[in-house]
Amino acid sequence: MPGPRVFTVEEVTALIPKLEKLFERTDTVRGRLKTLTIRINALEMIWGSKVQEESNPDHGEFQHHLAEMKSNQEEFERYTKAVAKLGGQVKSTEPPLVDFYGVRDGRLIFWCWTRGETLVNHWHHLDQGFAERQPI
Question: Where are the strands (E) in the chain, listed by range?
C-alpha cells in the first residue's frame, strides 16, 4: 500500500483557490446548521421531550429541522472529504486549517495553510501543530 501523497510548496499553493471555495461552502452550511440548532433548541425548550410526540403541534416542524440538520451535516462532511481527496488533512474548519505532506531537508513534514494565506509560507514537523509552524 503506497504512503501519503507528498506535495511541493508550489503544488499546495496551486490548490489554494479550490480550498478557499470549499471552505466558503462550509461557511454557508455552518450558518445553516447554527440556525437549525437555534430552532431545534427553541422547540425543545418550549416542549421538552413532548416535541417528539406525533400529537405535538410542533412535531412536524421539529422533525423537518432534524432532517435538514442531518442533510446539512452530510453536506459539510462532503466538503471536508473533498479537501481530503485533494490530499489535505483538515485540522480545523473554524478557522480553516489544512496540512499537506511535504519534504524539507530530507524529512517528511507538513506544509501548513490557513484561510487568508495566498501562498503556503509555513511548515511544521509531523508531531507538531499550528502553534509550532515555522516560516519557509
Answer: 89-93, 96-104, 107-114, 122-125, 134-135
